[in-house]
Every structure is written in C-alpha cells, then in structure tokens.
Automatic annotation (TrEMBL):
Residues 1-129 form the DAGKc domain. PROSITE patterns: DAGK (PS50146). It comes from the Bacteria. This is Putative lipid kinase YegS-like. NCBIfam families: lip_kinase_YegS, PRK13054.1, YegS/Rv2252/BmrU family lipid kinase. SUPFAM superfamilies: NAD kinase/diacylglycerol kinase-like. It comes from Pseudomonas reidholzensis. One of its GO terms (cellular component) is plasma membrane. Its EC number is 2.7.1.-. Transmembrane segments: none annotated. GO terms for biological process: phospholipid biosynthetic process. It is an enzyme of class 2 (transferase). Its cofactor is Mg(2+). GO terms for molecular function: ATP binding; lipid kinase activity; metal ion binding.
Amino acid sequence: MGERKAMLVLHGKQALNEDVRAAVTAVRERGWHLDVRLTWEAGDAQRLVGEALQAGYSHIVAGGGDGTLRDVAEAMGFARTEASLVLLPLGTANDFAKAAGVPLEPAEALALLDQPPCPIDLGRVGDQLFLNMATGGFGSQVTANTSEDLKKVIGAAAYLFTGLSRFSELQAASVELQGPDFHWQGDLLALGIGNGRQAGGGHVLCPEALADDGLLDIGILPAPQEMVGALRDLLAGEGLFVRARLPWVEIKSSQGLDINLDGEPLQADSLRFEAMPAALRVHLPAHSALLSRPG
C-alpha cells in the first residue's frame, strides 16, 4: 500500500464544512493523496471502508460524530487490516476524541496523519465492535433522548439539560455483572463499559480507562436512596462508583437491558462484552491519556 494514500469517509452533513475543505487542501499540499467520500445512509461507512481497503489505501480518516467514528473503526476492525485510522471529530459530543486528546480543529486533527499509528483495543459485544464505550442506565437514556435540535443550539450542554429535565423519569435498573474474579448484583443508575473514558457529551464513567491495555474498564453507579445526589454525581462524573478492569464481562437483567453502544441502541436480556486487544492501528497524539505507553 502507498504510504501517503488516504481516504476520508466524511458524514454527509459535513459536505459543506469549509474548515474541513481547507484542512483537506492543506493535507494535499503536504504531498498526501487524500480522496473524500461522503456517507448518505446507514451502511455507507462500512461499504466505503471496504472499497478503500480493496483499492489499497494505507490510511482511512473517519470524519463525523461518535457514530461515524465507530462505524469506520468497526469496519476496519472486522477487516483485520494493517491500514491505520485517523479521527476527524465533527460531532456534538466527540467523547472518544476528547478523552484521547485528538484536536477538534480539522486542520490539527488531519495533521495526525503525519504521526505514527499505535495499536489500540476495540470492544466487542455479539457481532458488533465499539471504539469508545457501552453505557446503560440513566446515562444511556439521556444520550438517547437528547434531541438533535437541542444539540445544535447548545452543544454538549444539551445532555446535561436533558438529564435535569427528565429527572422525574429516573429509574434504576436491576442487573448482574460477572467477570474474572468479579461479581456485582443490584440496582444501578448508570453503567459504563469503556475502552474510552467518557460518554453522553462528557459523562466520565471510566476515568482510568486505557485504549491499549487489552482490558475493558467497568464503571457502575449503584442506585442509592437519595436520587438527587446520585444524579448530581452522575453528571459530575465522580463519587459512589464501583469499578473494575476486565478482559470480559457478562451482564444479565430479567427486565431487559437498554445499552447505548457509541450512540447505537442495543437491547437484550443478557450480553457479553470483551476486549479485542490491538485490533486497530490509530493515529493519536504522542502523549494521549488513553495510551499506556505514550509516545
């Protein structure tokens, strides 16, 4: 594969983004062969990744929100490719990118093409892969119920606003989690299974997670009697959490599980999550907080 041949898989809503256009031009002026393809509907990102790999592109850039980044990372993970991924975060939350220290300015993000890639893990549940985090409980309800219009107006603060406005609907979920030398059963308000550290526009559920340690971080916020304080702790990302770091974890709930997987809803009575070590090569800043071996 050519060393300086890249394809940008760009969410269709970003087609007229002038900052992205200028950043692409700057990359080309540095000697990169960078082609741009737009997504239009579900499945486009996976198809475009397949076409890029078949055509011999050595680098793929995922441009869009957390869902687009996950779709591209998943497709590359399943392909078991040696091609590397650059993240161009253009969404409202940009949770994985922020935790990893990826710049939010398009030109600075695309400059990571010139940084060497490093292997990171992916999470797997069933036949799906995820880059950042699976969440359950109230945190996933907030993410699912935050409107696109509200996010356009007030950005990531929309998640906080939605959480406060839906306080009266706050309900605990009764679950059982089982992993190597780990067992927890009870009612929870929030659950994070993280390859990254935060979800839902900045809720830090797994503050010590590393993306290259071959493990998933587990963050459980048990449901206490005093719901107001628990909601405040959830939104602040602190206090009360039960934590573990595991290669896999199984979750069961007689009431059924509502999981948010990097923005995608997932429902089941039982699920098994596992880490896929070094499943993807990604260009991250040299001193990214998600790397156990910075630089």
